[in-house]
Amino acid sequence: MNGTRRQAVRQRWILVGGLSLALLAAVIGSPQVGSSASQPVVTPAEFKKGAAAFNANCARCHGERGVGTPQGPPLVHKIYEPNHHGDAAFQRAAAMGVRAHHWQFGDMPKVSTVTPADVDEIIQYVRWLQRQAGIN
Ligand code: HEC
Q1: Which of 13, 47, 61, 126 could form a disulfide with 72 if both were Cys (CB 3.0 to 4.6 A apart)?
Q2: How far apart (Å, rounded) are the C-alpha atoms in residues 62 and 71?
Q3: C-alpha of residue 33 to centroid of ligand 1, in Å
Q4: Model's pTM, two decimal places?
């Protein structure tokens, strides 16, 4: 191998090394790309009970963290802020169900597996989610 060829080989390895480092940095850095400040991962202790009740009774339609599913609308949405749908609307929805009027998902059946106290906890949790999203 003459000198010029050796230099070319070395340059190629430097390039490969640099690219691998860049790739490594991208892989290590990627978890931060996905999470945004408005979506905190940790639910504060005071809302954990409400979160558990929500996940067990409401999330199958309203989605984890209230983002909605093909079965039901997002509760983290402007139309469900406290001024439009106060806490009583949540108690009424759970106790009596909801006739479809805002969306095309159909009616919400009443949820008989929750007590009014459970719904109070759920409301606190949903209001917190809404605040995180800048809604109330
Ligand atoms: C089987 C699916 C389903 C489940 C389970 C469910 N919901 Fe709903 N919910 C819906 C649908 C669909 C609507 C939208 C009705 C409409 O078109 O306005 C709705 C609407 C609501 C509304 C708005 C009420 C209003 O006055 O407009 C609230 C509040 C609500 N749900 C709370 C809850 C809570 C709290 C739970 C759990 C205890 C729950 N939902 C469980 C399907 C569901």
Answers
A1: 61
A2: 7
A3: 32
A4: 0.78
